[in-house]
Amino acid sequence: MAYLSPELFATTDPLRLAGSRCLNCGHVHFPPGEQCPNCAEGESRRFALPEHGVVWTWTVQRFAPKAPYVVADEGFMPFAVGYVDLDCVLVESVLLGPLDKLSIGTPVRLVSCQLGGSDDMQSYAFSA
């Protein structure tokens, strides 16, 4: 997956994001890392995050992001971004699906997606 750190993923087939759980306080964080952002302890364990969640909150990106985002030949199309509640952690993500069908509490699942007009810029998103 171009432009994305492999450290973000527990597996790529099937696609699963990686999180870390602090061995001291139990706090789960994404992206994964050794040091806990909650208690500052330095021992965490990586694990695969759930692939299903619900939209916690969202908004619409109405202008093209900065590089490395590439605007498609057809021009920029607004898209949804938000936080997905995976029950153990909130993950910020692009949200796929009709904008008029999104709402807080909408069930979503993790998918791979192409960002903008670049064929080699693959990312993850959550789809309704």
UniProtKB/TrEMBL annotation:
The lineage of its organism: Bacteria, Bacillati, Actinomycetota, Actinomycetes, Mycobacteriales. SUPFAM superfamilies: Nucleic acid-binding proteins. Residues 49-111 form the ChsH2 C-terminal OB-fold domain. InterPro entries: ChsH2_C, ChsH2_Znr, NA-bd_OB-fold, Thioester_dehydratase-like. Residues 16-41 form the ChsH2 rubredoxin-like zinc ribbon domain. This is DUF35 domain-containing protein. Pfam families: OB_ChsH2_C (PF01796), zf-ChsH2 (PF12172). It comes from the Bacteria.
